[in-house]
Each structure stands twice: as structure tokens, then as C-alpha cells.
Write a structure and sequence with these properties.
14 helices, Aspartate Aminotransferase, domain 2, seven-stranded mixed β-sheet, four-stranded antiparallel β-sheet, about 350 residues
């Protein structure tokens, strides 16, 4: 079997998670009477410190709903220039919500209060769109899975609220951030009005994300979910996986972080590899190849049973997750050494 570092989305549910899915009591979630989903939403809202939550099929839909709930058609959303909502969500904010994204280059993925304030449009100029909201991403994918320092996140959020902006948090991997910081996820989510987190990444569920916010936010979110085709019926078979994950899969994320650190340190010792260890804070490892194209490196590794993900001409991303053990890290490093030495 291949060692698959392409993403934590490839993590498979454990036998215990599958059993929970099979045994889940079911109802119709669109009518609000799926007991397992209701239990998940109560637990998820509690974990995020929010009043309510709703289940959505994907993190991309959750972020799109976050745009729709926090900004109106013809308004503008401020986002990091390398954010998932700007880079990887097929211009959904513009195409579906009619909301323009204003990208802000941060360099490190952490937006300063000054950058937030400077990105706000003057409200008395009819030529410019109204700045309605800002989105933050924690952990930040394209910046290496880095974790926002809580003080920095709170400062940026406070600046946004002072400017009259709503704050949405793309918390796809918020539990990775919480484990890395050693704080409850609610400490991070408390910086935002709405937050989306993924069940189908590090928590190893097969499908799903959860969108959390105030009761009014969730009522509007459900309307948008229906509009987008995300209202599902006996979704308790998926919610059961989420419940199991919240109880059993969060603390073990520390193992993924440790494996990523070992992987990064091993890569940094290989010839022709540049890996900034200061950026390896959770389960993502980015590195650059000095002499070999990333696609060639990836193809040669795949022939030897190790799968990765090129993210640039000479850049590769590797992601540790449930199902990858410490011994797999050592096996992969041997493959990388062989490919780079060939």
C-alpha cells in the first residue's frame, strides 16, 4: 500500500468510526429531526463557543456560506492573498454571492491590524465597494500550516470589528491549531463571528464540515445551504463519524504534528532540499527542490510507493494524517533520498 502524503483528506475512517456510522439513529436533517446530526451540531457549537451550527458537505461550501452570511451582493470581503477562499474556491464568492474579494499580501499568512484597517474602503466614496467582512485562515494552508498566535488573531479581529467588519474564520484545520497552541478550539473561534471547520481532514471523517455562528447566522446559513443544494436527509450516518471524531480524533492530531516535524527534519538533511523548519508547526510540510522539478520528483516517488503533491515548479507539499505511522516517515525519507540521489 502506498504512503499517501497528498492530503489529510485521504485519511480513512477507523473501524470504530465506521461502526458508529452503521449504528447511528437517523432522521431527516432538512426537517431538523435527525437525532445524530442534532447531537453533532450541539457538540460542534459547544467546541467552537458558538450558539448554533449546521452540517455542510464540504469546507468550500462552508466558506461560501460564510461569505454569503457576512457580506451582501456588491460588497467586498478582505482576505489574505494566499487564502483558500481566494485561491482554491473557484471564485465562488463572486460567481455565487456577488461578493468581491480584496486580496491582501501578508507574506506570512498572518494579517496585521494595520493591514485590516488599510484594506477597508472609504464609505463616503460611491466609486468603491463597501467593505463588509474579513476572513482569516487558521491553520494557513499555503503558508505551510502555520498557526496564528492568539494575540495576533485577536488583534486583527478587534481591528476588523472596530471598522464595522464581520469576521469569518476558515478553520478547516482549527483543531490542528488548537492542539499546536494547547488551547481549546473555542479560544481561536472566539475571534470570529462565524467559523467553518472540516471533519474530513485531520479528523479522518469521510465527508463533511460544520458551519457555526449565532442563531441568526445559522438560520441564514441554512437558507444558503438549501440554495446551494447542500441540504441532505439522513445525514446522521455522516454526523456519527463527526461525533466519534470530536471525542476520539482531536488529541491524536499531536501525533500527526510530531510525524510532520520528523519528516521535515529528515528532508532538511537531504541534498538539494530546502525546508524552512520554522514553518512546520502542524501537519503540513512544504519544501523546495534545488535541482529537480517537483513533478519529476513526485513521479519518481510514486513509482516507489510514496505519493506527494507538487504545489509549484519546484515546491512539494506533504501532509501527515491518521493512517501514517512513524515507520512510514522513515520509509518515505529513504525513498526521497534514493530519488534525489539518482
Amino acid at each position: 500500500m502506498a504512503i499517501d502524503f497528498r492530503s489529510d483528506t485521504v485519511a480513512m475512517p477507523s473501524p470504530e468510526m465506521r461502526h458508529a456510522m452503521v449504528e447511528a439513529p437517523l432522521g431527516d436533517d432538512v426537517f431538523g429531526d435527525d437525532p445524530t446530526t442534532n447531537q453533532l451540531l450541539e457538540a460542534a457549537a459547544g467546541r467552537m463557543g458558538k450558539a448554533a451550527a449546521t452540517f455542510v458537505p464540504s469546507g468550500t461550501m462552508g466558506n461560501l456560506i460564510g461569505v454569503a452570511v457576512n457580506a451582501q451582493r456588491g460588497q467586498e470581503l478582505i482576505a489574505d492573498a494566499d487564502s483558500h477562499v481566494f485561491y482554491y474556491e473557484t471564485a465562488g464568492a463572486a460567481a455565487v454571492c456577488g461578493v468581491q474579494i480584496r486580496p491582501v499580501s501578508t507574506g506570512a499568512g498572518v494579517m496585521s491590524p494595520e493591514q485590516v484597517a488599510d484594506a477597508v474602503r472609504p464609505r463616503d466614496d460611491p466609486h468603491e465597494p463597501i467593505s463588509a467582512a474579513v476572513t482569516f485562515e487558521d491553520t494557513h494552508n499555503r503558508h505551510g500550516g502555520i498557526v496564528w498566535p492568539l494575540e495576533a488573531l485577536r488583534a486583527a479581529s478587534d481591528a476588523a470589528h472596530r471598522e464595522g467588519l464581520r469576521v469569518h474564520l476558515d478553520g478547516a484545520r482549527i483543531f490542528n491549531a488548537a492542539v499546536a497552541l494547547g488551547v481549546p478550539a473555542a479560544e481561536i473561534a472566539g475571534c470570529a463571528d462565524t467559523v467553518t471547520f472540516c471533519l474530513s481532514k485531520g479528523l479522518a471523517c469521510p465527508i463533511g464540515s460544520v458551519f457555526c455562528g449565532s442563531e441568526d447566522d445559522i438560520e441564514e446559513a441554512k437558507r444558503w445551504r438549501k440554495r446551494l443544494g447542500g441540504g441532505m436527509r439522513q445525514v446522521g450516518v455522516l454526523a456519527a463519524a463527526g461525533l466519534y471524531a470530536l471525542d476520539h480524533m482531536v488529541d491524536r492530531l499531536a501525533e500527526d504534528h510530531a510525524n510532520a516535524r520528523t519528516l521535515a527534519e529528515g528532508l532538511a538533511e537531504l541534498p538539494g532540499v530546502r525546508c524552512d523548519l520554522s514553518r512546520v508547526q502542524t501537519n503540513l510540510v512544504y519544501f523546495d527542490l534545488e535541482k529537480m522539478p517537483a513533478t519529476v520528483f513526485n513521479d519518481e516517488c510514486a513509482k516507489r510507493g510514496v505519493l506527494g503533491g507538487p504545489t509549484g515548479p519546484r515546491q512539494v507539499r506533504l501532509v501527515t494524517h491518521y493512517g501514517i505511522e512513524a515507520r512510514d516517515i522513515q520509509s518515505a525519507l529513504q525513498v526521497f533520498d534514493e530519488v534525489l540521489s539518482a
